[in-house]
Amino acid sequence: MKFKRQHVIITGGSSGIGKATAIMLVQEGAHVSIVARHLETLETAKAELEAVKVYPEQHIICLSADVSQHDQIELAIARCVEELGPPDILIASAGISHPGYFHELPLHIFEETMAINYFGTLYAIRSVLPFMQQNKRGHIVIISSGAGLIGIYGYTPYSPSKFALRGLAESLRGELKYFGIDVSIVYPPDTDTPQLAVENLTKPHETKLITGTAKTWSPEGVAATILQGLLKNDFVITPGLEMKLLQGWHSMLAPVINWYFDKIVKGVRSI
Ligand SMILES: NC(=O)c1ccc[n+]([C@@H]2O[C@H](COP(=O)([O-])OP(=O)(O)OC[C@H]3O[C@@H](n4cnc5c(N)ncnc54)[C@H](OP(=O)(O)O)[C@@H]3O)[C@@H](O)[C@H]2O)c1
Asked: Which residues are registered as beta bridge partners of 237?
């Protein structure tokens, strides 16, 4: 078991993809720290993790912090390290999405999405880095999205934040390699989580038709792909063939994808 006795910190570990990944890592024998804002959800997730422990000395902790506040996430990670030792793996899964029409969405949605999805990930990485550098090893996993590979109608706050993570991962990979630290970036497709349910409340009809063309994954399916990617030390982790093709060919495919998306939107607009 590669993950046995490793300390894994997961931001956004109280729900969805982060929680599913936490459960699988606990089942593999890892010590897991989960960080998110709401204490009640964290405590519920912690109980779920405790229930799948595979040996008595395995530790699970949960800490409340807002990743978009540098001091909060830095302090939370310092506490995780105090309790469970330096992290072997960071999985930065905390994120939000609020789709809508660009001209209708208030500016604060764009600012908040970038603050949580991009800067929240960056702050978490900066907070684990000194410990990983000291140990000369570690693995950082950044959760982007299929919407970080192509811009999608209705996702003007979200897509740019996930594109930014791609830029961060690609530029960071080579730098951290020389400290013995690996970087991976994950491009999940639509996944059946509380985030997707919240998205559906404000998603434009056109966006629903566009995203409805692809299969919705389970959080467990995405988590299993993340663990496989970690084991193989893959830089790019793509759940499913669609994401694999999109990741490899997005620029080449963009004209066809845009034509197809425009066709869907035209169908709605001309009704
Ligand atoms: N679901 C999808 O279709 C999909 C597709 C592609 C990529 N993704 C990405 O996958 C990641 C996980 O998404 P999910 O679908 O699993 O969402 P989710 O079920 O809503 O979980 C999001 C997690 O992030 C935490 N979080 C949100 N804002 C935070 C903040 N400011 N500080 C700390 N924690 C925060 C949430 O807890 P609190 O609210 O308590 O803080 C929760 O634990 C996100 O980065 C998302 O963009 C999701």
From this structure: 186
pLDDT profile of the chain (271 residues), mean per 10: 92 98 98 98 98 97 98 98 98 98 98 98 98 97 97 97 98 97 98 96 94 92 98 97 93 89 86 60
According to DSSP, residue 119 is labeled I
Q: The domain that contains 99 carries what CATH number?
A: 3.40.50.720
Cα–Cα dist 126/98, whole Å:
26
CB 183 within 8 A of CB 172: yes
The neighbouring-strand residues paired with 139 are: 89, 182
CA 101 / ligand 1 centre spacing (Å): 21
Tell me the residue ranges of DSSP E strands in 81-191: 89-92, 138-143, 181-186
Query: If you take atom 42 of ligand 1, which residue's CA is the nearest one?
Result: 12
135 part of a folded domain: yes
pLDDT tens readout for residues 211-260: 988 899 999 999 999 999 999 999 999 999 999 999 999 988 889 888 98
Which residue do the tokens 């934040």 mark?
161
Domain assignment present for 2: no
- List the residue whose alpha carbon is closest to atom 34 of ligand 1: 36
- Give the pair of three-digit tokens for residue 117: 């999805």
DSSP state of 146: G
Cα 267 to ligand 1 centroid, rounded to whole Å:
32
In a domain, 104, yes or no: yes
Strand order in the sheet with 236-237: 60-64, 31-36, 7-11, 89-92, 138-143, 181-186, 236-237
**Domain region containing 48:** 7-269
CA angle 144, 250, 104 (to 5 degrees): 60
Give the total number of structural domains in the chain.
1
| pTM of this structure | 0.97
